Amino acid sequence: MRSRGAARREPGSTRFGVSESVEGRALAALYAEHSHVVRAFIRSYLADPHRSEDVLQETFLRAWRSIDRIQVTEGNPRSYLFATARNILTDEWRAQERRPRLVHDDARLDAAPSDDSVDATLEVLTINEALSRLTEDHREVVQALYYDGLSVNEAADRLGLPPGTVKSRSYYAVRALRAAFDEMGLLR
Question: What CATH number does the domain located at 22-98 have?
Answer without folding.
Answer: 1.10.1740.10
